[in-house]
Amino acid sequence: PVDADELQRALGPLGQLVARASTGNNFWLERLSGASTDRRRLAAIRSLPDDLRRIGPADIQSAAQRWLRPDRSWSMVVLPKSATPS
Questions:
Q1: In sequence order, what DSSP letters do the residues of 1-17 get, joined into one string?
Q2: Of the four, 64, 73, 82, 86, which is 20 to 30 A from 6 by CA?
Q3: To which H or E segment does residue 62 belong?
């Protein structure tokens, strides 16, 4: 699992980005789309900074185990029309 220091070095800048972006109108216009019909959107936006602070190494490990499964992995090769895969 990722250690707490490495996780904070990754999440710290993300939290700063959200803090800076949330001072502008574009941030709110994009995120509030649909909030009049789904009140959960506003609550989710407000909780974003706290949610980022609460992410721990165990959360990352759990997400990796759920989503990064060998039986669901795939790869793709993009080649020019004239090339053939080897």
A1: ---HHHHHHHHHHHHHH
A2: 73
A3: helix 57-67
Tens digits of per-residue pLDDT, 16-57? 999 999 999 999 999 998 888 998 998 999 999 999 999 999
Query: 51: which 2 tokens?
Result: 């949610």
Contacts of 48 (CB under 8 A, 6+ apart): 18
Residue of 55, 52, 70, 45 lying closest to 15 (CA atoms): 52
Q: Residue 83 has which token pair?
A: 């090339």
Joined tokens for residue 72 = 């669901």
Backbone angles phi, psi at 26, to 5 degrees: -60, -45
